[in-house]
Design brief:
RNA-binding, 2 domains, cca-adding enzyme, domain 2, 12 strands, disordered C terminus, EC 2.7.7.19, alpha+beta, transcription, Beta Polymerase, domain 2, transferase, PolyA_RNA-bd
């Protein structure tokens, strides 16, 4: 009896506390959530034909866990879009009416992350499922509205919860505003996204100009999704892009880098670069791209590098972002290298000056992470050493940790016509040869040998030896 009494007292207190917290924080609109599907088309399994077995275990367990706890939960965004296109999604995002704190309480292995908008990461072994609360409009007029907008219209912070209808309206493209429920295998479609996917169209939700000003990165996303998925950008969605290209200058360089990385690693980098140039979006990101692509040798080098990247991505082989950006910026390095040599610098010091200049200049527009830029410099710096094919130098180069990446880079230079094909073939044969055969391949050492300095004895030592 005493135990039951205590439970009633503490449960009553916890309910009051929860009500107080709900009153002072921005939470999803629970009253309208059950009616949200009235605003959406309900698409049954026999129509959409999504193969449920393509969902990850983590995605299914997360939606089931939230639904058992009394919340709504759906697989959303790109995962649903890819499933409709019969592609296996790389990751799964979940949207729910539960707050981050409520999600965190449901799953033991979870953590709340994010500042711009709080999310929850739910872990299942190596898999991490991202869970977001339904988001509301940043324009909502309420005391709980934790949003901030720049004078340009760009959203700086939008930590605003809402209901499912508002969440669908906030999403960028109709193809991404789809909600799939694994429990009944139905899709809720608020903006005719399924019809657009079937028609091969990428369409912005709302006024494209306003949506691009809210987040200029959406222009890059439109290019990437169009190239990756083979969707044609709808005319009204495409028209404002060239006029608003300068808006990308307001986006933090680190965020631009992340989006560009997704674009180049989409498996359709070559198409994406051509689309960037067509829409005038490369200015301020890779401003020298036009100059490089107008030069026959530079164009061939960049296109070979992008095709190589696409082939590796589509074959599900690992791709190095360092190698990719090293190729995109190489011809800028070449120009700067020549400039410093013309000023009287020796070859190797001139190369290092050129590398630092290009990395520093690029950081002002597209912040390449330091862990990538360090490797880029190593790849560039080793190129000079491939021309040294005498003595012990070729042996030491083979032992360098970045030899393989630098060697692949060398082959691209040879294939593009920048260097003789013979040089790349020599290194290929040298690396595979052994013993005397490798020794016989070395070229005569024609470099002048450095004169060894004679050690001069100290005066005190000389004096002591004479007994003075």
């Amino acid at each position: 009896m005493i135990k039951k009494l205590l439970q009633r007292v503490f449960n009553s207190k916890s309910k009051k506390t929860a009500e107080t917290v709900s009153a002072v924080t921005s939470t999803p609109n629970k009253k309208t959530k059950r009616k949200s599907d009235l605003n959406a088309k309900r698409i049954l399994k026999k129509t959409h034909r999504i193969d449920r077995s393509l969902l990850s275990i983590g995605a299914i367990k997360t939606t089931e866990g939230l639904q058992k706890a009394g919340f709504e939960a759906y697989v959303v965004g790109g995962a649903v879009r890819d499933l409709l296109l019969k592609k296996r999604p790389k990751d799964f995002d979940i949207a729910t009416d539960a707050t981050p704190e409520e999600v965190n309480r449901v799953f033991r292995r979870s953590r709340i992350i994010g500042r711009r908008f709080r999310l929850v990461h739910v872990m299942y072994g190596d898999e991490t499922v991202e869970v977001s609360t339904f988001r509301g409009s940043h324009l909502a007029d309420s005391e709980q509205n934790d949003a901030k907008v720049a004078d340009s219209g760009r959203i700086l912070r939008d930590n605003v919860f809402g209901n499912q209808v508002e969440d669908a309206l906030r999403r960028d493209f109709t193809a991404n505003a789809l909600y799939y429920d694994p429990s009944n295998e139905e899709i809720l479609d608020f903006h005719d996204g399924v019809a657009d996917i079937q028609a091969g169209v990428l369409r912005m939700i709302g006024d494209p100009v306003t949506r691009y000003r809210e987040d200029p990165v959406r222009m890059l996303r439109a290019i990437r999704l169009s190239a990756k998925l083979g969707l044609k950008i709808e005319q009204a969605t495409e028209a404002p892009i060239p006029k608003l290209a300068d808006a990308l200058g307001d986006v933090p360089p680190s965020r631009l880098f992340d989006e560009m990385l997704k674009l180049f690693l989409s498996g359709h980098a070559l198409e994406s670069v051509n689309a960037l140039r067509h829409h005038g979006l490369h200015h301020g990101l890779l401003p020298m791209l036009d100059v490089v692509l107008e030069q026959p040798m530079g164009e061939r080098f960049v296109k070979l590098a992008l095709k190589n990247t696409d082939d590796r991505v589509l074959a599900e082989k690992p791709v190095s972002p360092s190698f990719l950006f090293a190729t995109l910026l190489w011809h800028e390095v070449l120009v700067a290298w020549k400039k410093y040599k013309d000023l009287g610098e020796n070859s190797i010091p001139a190369l290092h000056l050129a590398m630092n200049e290009i990395i520093d200049t690029q950081a002002e527009k597209l912040a390449i992470h330091k862990r990538f830029s360090v490797t880029m410099k190593e790849i560039w710096g080793l190129q000079v050493r491939f021309e040294q094919r005498a003595g012990k130098r070729p042996y030491s180069l083979l032992e360098h940790p970045r030899y393989r990446a630098a060697y692949d880079f060398l082959l691209l230079r040879c294939e593009s016509g920048e260097l003789p094909i013979e040089l790349g073939k020599w290194w290929t044969d040298f690396a595979s040869a052994e013993g005397e055969k490798r020794q016989a391949m070395l070229l005569p050492d024609t470099e002048p040998k450095k004169r060894r300095r004679r050690s001069r004895k100290k005066t005190s030592t000389a004096a002591s030896s004479t007994g003075i």
